[in-house]
Every structure is written in C-alpha cells, then in structure tokens.
## 1
Amino acid sequence: MKRSLLIVSVVAAVFVIVAFLVGGRALVLEGFNISINSATQSALMLFASFIVIGQIQVLLTKEMLDRWFKRSSGIKGIVVSAVAGGLFPGGPYIYFPFVASFAEKGLPFYVLIAFLLGKNTYDFARFPMEASLIAPNIAIIRNLITLPVPIIIGLLAKRYFGNKTIENVLGQAGETDATNDRSP
C-alpha cells in the first residue's frame, strides 16, 4: 500500500469518526453520498478524457507531429502550444496523462513547457468564473498581464534546451547531478 493512500485513508477515517460524533449516522451517510456523487462525476470525466487521449495518440503519429513542428517550430509552435494548453479542459489528472503521451512521442521540451504553462496560466474556462466572482475588468487585467508568461518561458526553454525532448532534458539533469557528486 502506498504511503499517500495510507495517509488519506487515515484522514478519511478521522473525518468519518468526527462526523459521527458531531451529527451521528445521518451526517456520515450524507458525507458518503456527496463522496459518491463526486467520484462518479470525476470517474466519468477521467474515462472520457482517457478515451480522447487514446484516440489522439492513435491519430497523431510521431511522423505527423515531426512534420508539423518542422513547419511550426519556434515562436509559432510555442504560441500554439500555450493557447492549446489554455483551451484544454479539465484538471491535472486529465492534462498530465495527455502531456505524458506527447512526451513519449518525442515532442520538444519547450512545447511541453509552453502547453503546461498555458494550461495553468490561461485556463480560459476559468475566465467566466473570475469575471463573475471578482470583476470583469480585473479578470481582463490579470489575463493581459499573464499573457506573455507561457510564451516567454517557452522561448527561454527553447533557447536553453533547443529541440531536446523531455527525456533528454531529464536525462541530462540526472547525468549532471551524478558528475557533480563530490563524495569520497
């Protein structure tokens, strides 16, 4: 059993006991009903997302991606990746497997960085909520201020890592750490 599962299980048991002490069996059952509804909604989203990821992996071959990135390398590829990240639906449990599937196809590191930063910075689905909860003008200002961030970071990643894939970058970092080991 993984340590994180054990910790979450202990926390869940503590909360069930506290709920029982505070409100009895009715409060515990209400909590379980909410949990089941949340799990069902998340499971359906995960299932649909993994179907999309599987179909994208089948439809977008490495050769097709290589051709596209030869035509769209540099800033154009970075901007497209950042905007695609901002438009990608769902949370991290949906887009990280998606990114991992593209990492396996050997996409350049800078493209993956631009996608991840675009998802976390832009997340266009969040804009209506921000506009309604805070104010539309503040939401627009926040989006305008953060607009260049994924593009700048993508350009920096391209500058420092070139067209290296994520495996090359992570492997290089591991090799660098090993060579800097000064233990006797």
## 2
Amino acid sequence: MFEKDSCYRLGHIARLHGFKGELSIFLDTDDPSDFKRLESVFVEYDQKLIPFFLEKIHIQNNGFAVVRFEDIDTEKKAKLLVGCSLYLPLETLPELDESEFYFHEATGFDVIDKTRGPIGKVTKVIDLSGNPLLEIDFNGREILLPKQDEFIERIDRENKILYVIAPPGLLEMYLNEEEE
C-alpha cells in the first residue's frame, strides 16, 4: 500500500456529475490537460490511500474533470467519495528545469537572495490560488515571498538551496527592524 509520504496531492473529488456514478474532480495543477490520459489515482478514504482505476476522464474548464471510476456505477457509491483527496506517486511527476520546483519539495530548503544573501529556510508553501507564497523562517521571523518565476533564480536540489531575487523593498519590509 502506498503511503502519503511517497505521493503528492493531485486534487479532490468535488461533487457528483449526473446520476450514474460519474464524479467531478478538481485537479490542483498548473496544467490539468497533462492528466487527460490518467489511468488510475489513489483516493484517500478513511485515512487510507485506495487505488481507483478510471474508465474515462474528460478534462473541463478551470481545473475540473469528469471521471468514471471502475466499479463506481451508482450515485450512492459515488456520494461516498465526494470530498476525498486524490493522490499520485511522486515518481510520476515530470522533471522540472532549474528554476522550477514542486511545492512539496521546497520545504526545508535554505533561501539565498541575490542581493541580501541567506534569508532563512522555507517552512512551507502556502497555495493561494494563482498566487502561491513561500513562507520563510528568518530567525523566528516570518517572510512571505511570492513564488513567481521572476523571483526564482534557480534551485539547487542536491544542496537544498533556493536562489531568489526578491522584489525591491520586500525583504526590507520584513527585516529592517532586525537591523536597527
């Protein structure tokens, strides 16, 4: 059985779609069309990851898709899954270039700003739709840095370092008090 630590969250089952067991799922990804050939997922049900095989998937707008799982052929069976999270194994993630990273992998990375130098460690990525933020701990002080391409210089996965170019004035807003 797969554990959550070896998987990433793909999205969740949002609602029923019709009355014959089809479900509307939300794919919490940059490009949901990457999953148009998805064959199976793990559904978190009763705190366990259970494999489900897809009979069909139809990608729609705004990150949603309509799916039919094998053996889920009634509204009653489908209702049991609404609200459940969907997972895939980490090894299914495509490789990224040196300035891109997946949210789950950034936690614990040291952050070095091009101008200021070391500014702390990523404690988590806050996934606000359309505007994710890196939460960085700088000696007990929280810094929030937008995770946008123009602010990420590169990522050194081997040494767990994230090189950034913070927007002008952002770090000073958080750190000026520290220097006085």
## 3
Amino acid sequence: MKNQISYSPEVRERAVRLVFEHQKEHESQWSAIKSIASKIGCTAETLRTWVRRTEIDQGIRGGMSTSDRARLKELEQENRELKRANEILRKASAYFAQAELDRRPK
C-alpha cells in the first residue's frame, strides 16, 4: 500500500484557488492542475480530486456535496443502530412469549 501524505486544509484551499485563478492562462483545467500540482508537491490526480470536490460543494458541478455525504453517513449509522435495537427487542419479545407459554397454569 502506498504511503498517504496528509495535506492541511489551508494547502488544499490554496491549491484549488490557484487552479481556479490560473486555469484561463492554460489551455485546459487539467494542464493548470498539472502545473500547480508539481509546484505544491502533490500529484495531479490528488489536486483534480480536490478541485472536483470544491466544484460540487459550490454547485458548479453536479453531485453530492460534502455536507450531504456527512448527513447520509450519520443517517446510515443511525439506521444500523435502530435495526440492531429492533432485533434485540424482537428476540426478547419472543423469549418472554415462550416463557409465558411454558409457565404452568394455576
């Protein structure tokens, strides 16, 4: 597995801002990304991912925003917890129903 380098949010924001500011000076956004990525020390693909994420968050490009992704993750976790709780309650209910049937009549 490759070593992952963690970049600070400030570096990410600055790199993305540079791409937006300088893409008109290049023939395409990709060439601007390649140029800036080499200057800040990350791969062009990493910077492209940051640019795409920013475009989605700003509504420039279609897709699920970062806040929507976080909300979806929270809801999925809550859903798993509720399913687990329901399963526990269903088993407890079946256990007590069986115990009631096994009890001797007075």
